[in-house]
Amino acid sequence: MTTTVPAAIGGAGAGASGAGSSGTGPGSPGGGEHEVEYTPAKSLLARVPRSVWPLLAFLVLFLIGGIIRPNLITIESLIGTATFAIILSIASFGQTFAVIQAGIDLSVPNTIAFSALSFLAMVGPLGPFGAFVGALLAGAVIGLLNGLVIAKLGLTPIVTTIAMNGLLFGVILLQFNFSELTQIPDFITAITSAQISVFGLTMAAVLPLGLVLMIMLQLVLSYTGWGRSLFLVGAAPETARLAGLPVDRIRITGYVISGMLAAFAGMVIVGYFQQASATMGDSYLLSSVAAVVVGGASIFGGRGSVVGTVGGALVLGQVATLVTVLNLGSNVQQLIYGAIILVVISLYGRKRG
Fold first, then answer.
1. Torsion of CA 173, 179, 181, 184, to 10 degrees
2. Termini Cα distance of the chain
3. How does DSSP classify residue 3?
4. Which of the listed residues 54, 127, 136, 203 has the most CB atoms within 10 Å of its CB?
């Protein structure tokens, strides 16, 4: 279900999709002189959507966990891993939009923290709904600043978003009195940590919430002109300019959406875990990137999907479960995440070459 740019627009989609290509894309010297020969097995594998592979990897890891500890193969264990994964997915959805356009958003951790703390600080004067809207607007402003600097000033996304992340951390330490931000509004807990029954299964409300958000965002990427343009900007920005697309505006909008989704993730995390701190988003720096690339997105842009991101988050969630079962510690978990990112980026780099 991974979305790619259409090959009809300047040939950009051929390099992005990778499936069914016969060597006639922009990366093929001679425009088709070197044809790729497909066996029936390779042809069948090429038809499998990229977002399916993370789900298969998750099932394999789930079975491995069951072999190590048989009591892990239960519906309760599956729901627990899925809940962890959907929270990570919500924190990674904005990262997906940034990566598709050949960027990255390393300000996600402190956008999460700043927006969540702003939400709690605004509940008193503005009420829960007003605070919710205010926190989303705060995330949008952060994304807008990132986008403007990247698109208009030409700074690289890595440098820009790292600088923004550091700036936000300073603002958090100076602006908020953490001892006063302890009251979590009921409505945010009702849509996150409250236990509900779905088809006879008890789960946290955040699980269906995240799945609904996934469907909505995937529809935006797959079936709107802006969503399709985002892929083309990531795969071939010069082609997009020649096609008359407002490349800078599309990039800025992508970062605005990334900021808003990170802000929403901050409120979800506050509602689910019932606490907030200056470092509450730190664990999502590496894991948000890992979920996106494991989910089939190319770090070079032009390919990705939020469905794949959920699959990538499921893989990371099961890795976290295995790390806990084997009592390896959180440091080993972060090491594994880093290794996964390096391997996936290396594979994409070889294909790109």
1. 140
2. 25
3. E
4. 54
Side-chain half-sphere of 235: how many Cα atoms within 13 Å?
29
- Is residue 297 within 8 Å of residue 308, measured between CB atoms? yes
Name the 3-class secondary structure at 195.
strand
pTM of this prediction?
0.84
Whole-angstrom Cα Rg for the chain: 21
| CA dist., res. 149 & res. 160, Å (int) | 7
Cβ atoms of 213 and 300 closer than 8 Å: no
Grouped pLDDT means (10 residues each) for the chain, 353 residues: 44 39 40 50 64 82 85 87 94 96 96 96 92 97 98 95 96 87 89 90 94 97 95 94 95 97 96 92 92 90 93 91 80 81 70 55
Map tokens 């800025």 to a residue.
Answer: 252
Q: Are 301 and 235 in contact (CB under 8 A)?
A: yes
